[in-house]
Design brief:
The complex is a heterodimer of chains A (about 180) and B (about 400). With about 180 residues, chain A is of the alpha+beta class. Chain A is about 45% helix and about 10% strand. Classes of the chains: A alpha+beta (about 180), B alpha/beta (about 400).
Chain lengths: ~180, ~400
């Protein structure tokens, strides 16, 4: 660690009792139940890889959902004897700056490109993982695994066996 | 849609055979036949039907006009290039500064594909096949045409004579399109290219040979005949977008804007540039399906404010010239209403005789509706009309009782 890296919030990492932290009252981030289950699976399979970000007064800037799991989910709590990792951000920030910091943490993430996702799903299934297991371990629905594994293939998926019957209007609309 | 479905005559043929008959009729009736091509699934059907017919009639190659709308997936470009290499196709690949609607932004309501002044922002590099000049296309940026406005330029009476341009418009797509394919000319699927167009020369007809195809039919054709197709639909299918909602046209207009978000997932290689091509694109990708863009739910009117003042507030958010245009359209609907009746326009219940509510007018005011696609809804049956009056009268009563009736007055 040099002087610059020592000044980074990550260098202040501590393992603390989650009751020392509390939620902020402005976080616009909404995590649906399926994503919450996936977040738990992520921590259970990979362990804690990202700390919660908080001010020194304990108010959470980023990581509310990790904190929720770390303070209420038995399996997650058992991993670390009930402790959660936290880094502190500067207290000099105004309340407005802190809110902006939360939004930046939430929003500065990309989205997953579907073709590359499909490549991964195809690879997993070709390597012998069952579609059920892919569903469970990536937090996907049957629908998503099915579409990705099938790679679209629109003429096959959206076609009928034969063409439909043609028609014409009996009463024609007015010309405009 | 029921109002436009009165009377359909089922034909003995299937949709493919019927489309072939319609195209054959065009070759019989007109001196010249061309296909308007976008690379989308409906124009794929239109072009392939035309190729099949032209081959039988000895009319190959087929003139195919591709309107390259710039902000389109590379999958579309690659597909169009494969089509252009088909010896049966004579492709004209147009990259012109055509006027397009940008519903993502109130401040910049139009954008121009391949505009020279925006070259640093182009979503894709100019294709080598590009035709960038067409005689008669205005050089003054303020006077540039939209695609429908400029179609006449592509058909010179002296060179082409009477002409048919075949379009992949299907009635199933929307109410507006269902109405379009029911207009009367000589056949319901043939419409004279309008005198209201600045490029009207009287020699052009628009033809919709696949007007009765369903989305299923559109995909059955490539499956049965092994036609090549635009693989951008595969990406959209993988992303979970239902077949009838899959669109590969630029998503900045009112209707397609709701699907803008999917470009980031389906077409990441163009999304980076696409999100910065027009004002408001990144915002619309995030919020197009929310009340910020008046999607389904509308902004809520505070109590005590008159509806007309509430609308004015939203009108003022457009550019002055655009605001005037939108105001004119809203005013036209209000005038029409009061020409028919002295009943007030109510917040949510549409008036059964005029189809107007403040909610409808508010949507026009917020979204702009520059393509004039939104129209009042009328009851389809006597039963619906009776229910409509019951709703109207109940809401009117409620407003009178609560002392808020003045809010709806003009």
């Amino acid at each position: 660690m040099n002087e610059k890296t020592a000044a980074m919030p990550l260098s202040s990492l501590r393992w603390i009792d989650p009751t020392e932290l509390r939620a902020n009252d402005y976080n616009p981030n909404h995590v649906a139940p399926a994503e919450m289950r996936l977040l738990k699976l992520s921590i259970m399979e990979d362990g804690w890889t990202q700390p919660i970000v908080a001010r020194s007064n304990g108010e959470i800037v980023d990581g509310f959902h990790r904190w929720t799991l770390g303070s209420s989910d038995r399996d997650v709590m058992a991993l670390t004897d009930g402790l959660v990792p936290v880094v502190a951000v500067s207290d000099e920030k105004s309340e407005a700056q802190q809110r902006m910091s939360t939004i930046r943490h939430n929003r500065a993430r990309g989205s997953h490109a579907v073709v590359k996702m499909a490549d991964i799903v195809v690879e997993l299934i070709d390597a012998g993982m069952s579609p059920d297991e892919v569903q469970r371990r990536l937090g996907m629905e049957y629908e998503e695994v099915d579409r990705l594994h099938d790679r679209g293939a629109m003429p096959k998926r959206a076609a009928a066996e034969a063409f439909g019957q043609a028609w014409e209007p009996t009463v024609k609309g007015e010309e405009e | 849609m029921a109002a436009y479905l009165w009377g359909t005559n089922r034909l003995a043929s299937n949709v493919y055979e019927a489309a072939c008959d319609r195209v054959a009729k065009c070759y019989e009736k007109y001196d010249h036949v061309a296909v308007s091509f976008s690379g989308g699934k409906d124009s794929t059907a239109t072009l392939n039907v035309t190729l099949d017919v032209a081959e039988k009639l000895g009319k190959l190659p087929v003139r195919t006009i591709f309107w390259d709308e710039e902000a389109i997936p590379f999958e579309t470009e690659h597909y169009v290039r494969r089509v252009a290499e088909d010896p049966r196709v004579e492709m004209e690949w147009l990259c012109l500064p055509v006027k397009h609607r940008n519903a993502c932004s109130n401040r910049e309501p139009w954008w121009y594909t391949w505009a020279p002044e925006a070259e640093d922002k182009w979503v894709r590099p100019l294709p080598p096949e590009a035709i960038t000049h067409v005689d008669g296309f205005p050089t003054d940026p303020a006077k540039r045409y939209s695609i429908p406005e400029m179609s006449g330029l592509m058909f010179d009476p002296k060179i082409h004579g009477t002409s048919a341009i075949l379009l992949g418009i299907r009635g199933q797509e929307s109410l507006t399109r269902m109405r379009a394919v029911r207009r009367k000319a000589t056949e319901n699927y043939i419409v004279h290219y309008g005198p209201d167009s600045p490029t009207y020369r009287g020699n052009l007809w628009k033809v919709y040979p696949v007007f009765d195809w369903t989305t299923e039919d559109v995909w059955t054709a490539p499956k049965l005949f092994g036609w090549d197709y635009n693989t951008s639909y595969d990406n959209m299918e993988m992303a979970g977008i239902k077949a009838h909602a899959q669109r590969c046209a630029p998503p900045y207009g009112e209707e397609p804007m709701g699907g803008l978000w999917m470009f980031s997932q389906c077409f990441p290689d163009i999304w980076d540039r696409m999100s910065e091509r027009v004002a408001g694109a990144a915002t619309a990708a995030r919020y197009a399906r929310t009340e910020l863009y008046s999607y389904r739910s509308r902004p809520e009117k505070p109590d005590g404010i008159k509806w007309r003042d509430f609308l004015k507030y939203f009108l003022r958010k457009h550019d002055p010239a655009e605001a005037a245009e939108v105001a004119k359209r809203v005013g036209m609907f209000i005038d029409r209403h009061y020409a028919k009746t002295s009943d007030p326009i109510l917040p949510t219940a549409t008036h059964p005789n005029t189809g107007i509510s403040w909610d409808f007018l508010l949507m026009l005011a917020v979204r702009g509706d520059f393509k004039h696609r939104k129209n009042p809804m009328f009851a389809d049956s006597d039963e619906d009309r009776v229910k409509g009056w019951a709703r109207y009268n109940a809401e009117r009563r409620e407003l009178i009782d609560s002392g808020r009736i003045h809010e709806v007055m003009p």
